[in-house]
Amino acid sequence: MDSTSDFLQRMDQYQTFLVMEKGLGEKTIAAYSADLMRFGLFLEKKKTDRVSHIDTGLILAYLIHLRNRGLSARSRARHLVSLRGFFKFLTNEKIVEKDPAQQVDLPKTGLQLPDVLTISDVEALLDAPDRNQPEGLRDAAMLELIYGAGLRVSELIRLAMTGINLEAGFVRVFGKGSKERVVPVGRMALNAIREYLDRSRPLLLKNRSSADLFVTRRGRAMTRQSFWNLVGRYARQAKLKKKISPHSLRHSFATHLLEGGADLRAVQMMLGHADISTTQIYTHVAQRQLVEAHKKYHPRG
User: Fold this and answer.
1) Contact 103, 65 (CB under 8 A)
2) pLDDT per position as a tens digit, 170-195
3) For the whole model, what pTM was predicted?
4) Which among 32, 173, 252, 287 has most CB atoms closer than 10 A?
5) Per-residue pLDDT reduced to its tens digit, 46-85
6) Exposure pattern of 207-238 as b/e (b: 16+ CB <10 Å)?
7) For residues 191 and 177, what is the distance between their CA atoms, to the nearest angstrom?
8) Dist CA 283 CA 254 (whole Å)
9) What strand order describes the sheet that includes 170-174?
């Protein structure tokens, strides 16, 4: 790496800070420096030099890179701690305006990358409910919608009758921070919802009224836990080997759109992400799958 690199200069400043202000020992500083140097080499491959150009998506890509190189969850967590300290220093010193490492969460079990289903897995899951039963029609409509619109579980179960426009083909949901967004809904999901409204919802309500779109036999909105349980049940019924959660369908929605050529900004708006860096992780997942497909199927891969 070029000795005049902006990244290296900021690293030198940070090391001085650790010695003079924090009073850390040689071994601790050497460990932090080794972690940062490894990140610096990654930046060099990405042709990124200035620390002001580093965003959350790039840090996520680096952690995925470390995982692909075989580093354990504990080692990746240590690297993230080193990066957090470095960027906290840069932010406090007004060298960068925004801390890109602050949004990255690495739990004890390791970096939780999105669980992405294949399209055939999704089809098997969506075909699992028995559409001859009222609950099966409801469950099918809910599964179609959470995948078809990339909703969060909380958004799905709180969806009101007034929140869906079947004619125009969209849902109006309230996401994190009660932010409203409008998301288009595909034909399959719209058909499943129409069928549920015609043949299932009246039987579940039994002359009761409800403002909620999806209801139980008690005439109430489905709970978050109940929906988690039914997703698990249908995943087992579909004989899916992956561990599936409702969020897996949201992740799959985003990844499948990007793999199909959708614009990142459009996906960001549909997911309701305030910051596009949160959406960028799906591009890394999609790119990794493309690389794997190329290696597997190309004659010179």
Assistant:
1) no
2) 999 887 667 788 888 889 999 999 99
3) 0.58
4) 252
5) 888 789 989 888 888 888 888 888 887 778 888 988 999 9
6) eeebebbbbbeeeebbeeeebeebbeebbeeb
7) 30
8) 9
9) 164-165, 170-174, 180-184
Q: Both tokens of residue 219?
A: 């005439």
Rounded-to-integer distance, Cα 213 and Cα 250, Å: 19
Residues of the chain with CATH 1.10.443.10: 119-296
Q: Which two tokens stand for residue 240?
A: 């899916």
Active-site amino acid positions = 152, 176, 247, 250, 273, 282
**CA distances (Å), origin 125, targets 132, 153, 247, 257:** 16, 16, 14, 18
- As a whole number, mean pLDDT of residues 257-263 equals 76
3-state secondary structure of 102: coil
Residue 301's pLDDT is 44
6-20 and 73-92 helices, crossing angle to 10°: 90
Rounded to an integer, what distance in angstroms lies between the CA atom of residue 259 and that of residue 294? 14
Taking the C-alpha atoms of residue 74 and residue 65, their distance in angstroms, rounded to an integer, is 15
Nearest alpha-carbon partner for 166 in 188, 193, 126: 193
Contact 151, 247 (CB under 8 A): no
CA-nearest of 155, 158, 161, 149 to 205 is 161
**DSSP H or E stretch at residue 42:** helix 26-45
Give the integer Cα–Cα distance in Å for 142 and 185: 12
Distance CA 9, CA 98 (A): 19
**Which is nearest to 282 in space by CA: 114, 82, 41?**
114
The architecture in CATH of the region 6-92 reads Orthogonal Bundle (1.10)
Kindly report, residue by residue over 197-215, the tens digit of the pLDDT. Answer: 999 999 999 989 999 999 9
Domain 119-296: which CATH class?
A: mainly alpha
Q: Start-end ranges of CATH 1.10.150 in the chain?
A: 6-92
